């Protein structure tokens, strides 16, 4: 017997109307209640609008594109490229789902897209490193696949799961290699007192970039300093500003600061200027991603250029079935080191 809305309501201890509100996303529901409902959906393997076999025969012309923050150029460029590819197809509509970085909202959007019988889903950006969320995400993606939806990961690593069955196509960025090259660039200039402003903890992008930086520092015999002179924050300007002040408190004689991304680097530059320090004469600064403003910053920002547009365009073609899957279902995009005026040898 198939699972009903009433079964989910009973498992979650709420009314059927509350379950419907959570799944529709059209009425405010308390976070704890939403979590109970979604957990019940997972435990009972509830499929909205009938069995998966019926959904597979009737996917819509809708394609969902999930982003953490559409106002962030990192996500905006990829989402725009996906949408441009989809816009060239007849009778296809791309909608951008802004999660705000919330794991719960990511799962809710995937449930809603399954309910709308989306023909494809593209998830952009790094993944949350949490076992419970990873399991819930894997279940959502398996259901989408069973319902006939193509699933493409863009800018995030392959799904880490031991479950059998099909895995989503994954277009990844070489974040480790890019971060290592940035650090090696500064080391080659003679820097030995390097601070690192990392992104939010428990994100794959954050971990991979930090691992690349620490690998270069360890190879130079500076592993202890790398640990001491690392702070975590958001991928925003304010985190760059506040993180810089903390790094200077820990070591006033820093000669270089590596930022988690270009937006964070803008905050670094502002904090250094407010402290009366010159870039790069007193402190060199690097970013990551090569967002459009990086070359116009003053001084122009040394960074790693990721092919965000190319990755998004390829994800769009894969979502449409217009391009063959990469070997093994995974393709990696490498970044280019862009050396500009924000880095120089340390002062004598």
Automatic annotation (TrEMBL):
Annotated protein name in UniProt: LacI family transcriptional regulator
A Pfam match is Peripla_BP_3
**Matching InterPro entries:** HTH_LacI, LacI/GalR-like_sensor, Lambda_DNA-bd_dom_sf, Peripla_BP_I
Q: Name one GO molecular function term.
A: DNA-binding transcription factor activity
Q: Which UniProt keywords apply?
A: DNA-binding, Transcription, Transcription regulation
Q: Which organism is it from?
A: Streptomyces marincola
Origin superkingdom? Bacteria
Start and end residues of each HTH lacI-type domain: 3-57
């Amino acid at each position: 017997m198939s699972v009903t809305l009433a079964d989910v309501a009973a498992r979650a201890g709420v009314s059927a109307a509350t379950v419907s509100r959570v799944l529709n996303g059209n009425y405010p529901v308390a976070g704890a209640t939403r979590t109970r409902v979604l957990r019940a959906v997972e435990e009972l393997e509830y499929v909205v609008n009938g069995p998966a076999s019926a959904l597979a025969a009737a996917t819509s012309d809708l394609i969902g594109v999930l982003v953490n923050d559409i106002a962030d150029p990192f996500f905006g460029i990829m989402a725009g490229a996906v949408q441009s590819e989809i816009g060239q197809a007849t009778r296809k509509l791309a909608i951008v789902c802004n999660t705000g970085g919330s794991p719960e909202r990511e799962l809710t959007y995937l449930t809603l897209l399954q309910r709308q019988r989306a023909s494809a889903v593209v998830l952009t950006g790094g993944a949350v490193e949490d076992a419970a969320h990873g399991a819930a995400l894997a279940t959502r993606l398996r259901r989408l696949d069973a319902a006939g939806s193509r699933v493409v990961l863009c800018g995030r690593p392959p799904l880490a799961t031991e479950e059998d069955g099909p895995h989503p196509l994954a277009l990844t960025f070489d974040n480790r290699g890019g971060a290592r090259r940035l650090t090696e660039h500064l080391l080659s200039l003679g820097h030995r007192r390097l601070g690192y402003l990392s992104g939010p903890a428990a994100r794959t992008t954050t971990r991979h970039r930090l691992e690349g930086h620490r690998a270069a520092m360890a190879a130079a015999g500076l592993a202890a300093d790398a640990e001491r002179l690392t702070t975590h924050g958001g991928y925003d300007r304010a985190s760059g500003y506040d993180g810089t002040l903390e790094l200077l408190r820990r070591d006033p004689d820093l000669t270089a600061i590596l930022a988690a991304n270009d937006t964070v680097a803008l905050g670094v530059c502002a904090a250094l200027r407010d402290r009366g320090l010159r870039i790069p004469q007193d402190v060199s600064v690097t970013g990551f991603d090569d967002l459009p403003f990086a070359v116009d910053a003053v001084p122009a920002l040394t960074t790693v250029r990721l092919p965000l547009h190319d990755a998004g365009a390829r994800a769009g073609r894969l979502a449409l079935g217009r391009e063959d899957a990469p070997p093994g279902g995974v393709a990696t995009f490498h970044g280019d080191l862009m050396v500009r005026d924000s880095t120089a040898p340390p002062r004598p």
